Amino acid sequence: MSNILVIGAHGHVGIHMVEKLGKTGDNVFAGVRSDKQFAEYNDMENVSPVIFDLKGTIEDMAKVYTDNAIDKIVFSAGSGGATGDDQTLIIDLDGAVKSMLAAKQAGITRYVMVSAMGADDRSFWADSGLHGYYIAKHYADVELRNSGLEYTIVRPSALTNDEETGKVDVIEQRAAGMNIPRRDVANFVVAVLHDDKAINHIYEITSGSSDIKAVL
Predict the structure, then answer these.
(1) 203 an active-site residue?
(2) I want to staple 16 with a disulfide (CB 3.0 to 4.6 A). Which of 62, 186, 204, 213 is the partner?
(3) Which one of the listed residues 41, 65, 111, 133 is annotated catalytic?
(4) Which spans are transmembrane here (predicted)?
(5) What residue spans define the domains of the chain?
(6) What is the DSSP pairing of strand 201-207 with strand 167-170?
(7) What is the DSSP string of 163-204?
(8) Which of 89, 147, 137 is nearest to 117 (CA)?
(9) In this model, does residue 37 exceed pLDDT 80?
(10) pTM, two decimal places
(11) Residue 215, Cβ neighbours under 10 Å: how many?
């Protein structure tokens, strides 16, 4: 049983993630921006909401880790499509990097990043309509790979609200039109957290035909 902090637990993927992790028997801490969001987790098994401010200091982040005896971290936060590139840099890049530095300060080694498919493929960024977002994701992933943490990077294709299937494909080259249900991204992250073979791997995933455990 682990103490897992999900940063960005109020996001469209994070909310599914904390609920699924709680059902595995882990102690799950839902990192959110405001205590006004706490009530949404009242009915979730083994889930406790905590304030986690990505605009705060590294020291404040490390204190959240140590106060709750966190041993695994998932970063699933994002500034959202309604904000500008400045907030994307502050949250998706600098916030992510600070959370990694805080993990090292707190002595935590296991860190899972929810990134984006194509974060290493500059060829389409400029025409994607999300240029700043992909830059932020790319360099956050680079920092994680170089951090010395036991990382896993999960890069899903375009996200949908379709029902989960429990099946994915891991691909080598992105293609237009790929998508995956948010619930299956959550399923994949849950599996990664419970499988040490996933440490120091990057997975670019989309809807597919392979059982998640078989993929890992």
Answers:
(1) no
(2) 186
(3) 133
(4) none
(5) 3-214
(6) antiparallel
(7) PP-SEEEE-SS--TT-EEEHHHHHHHHHHHHT-GGGTTEEEE
(8) 137
(9) yes
(10) 0.95
(11) 16
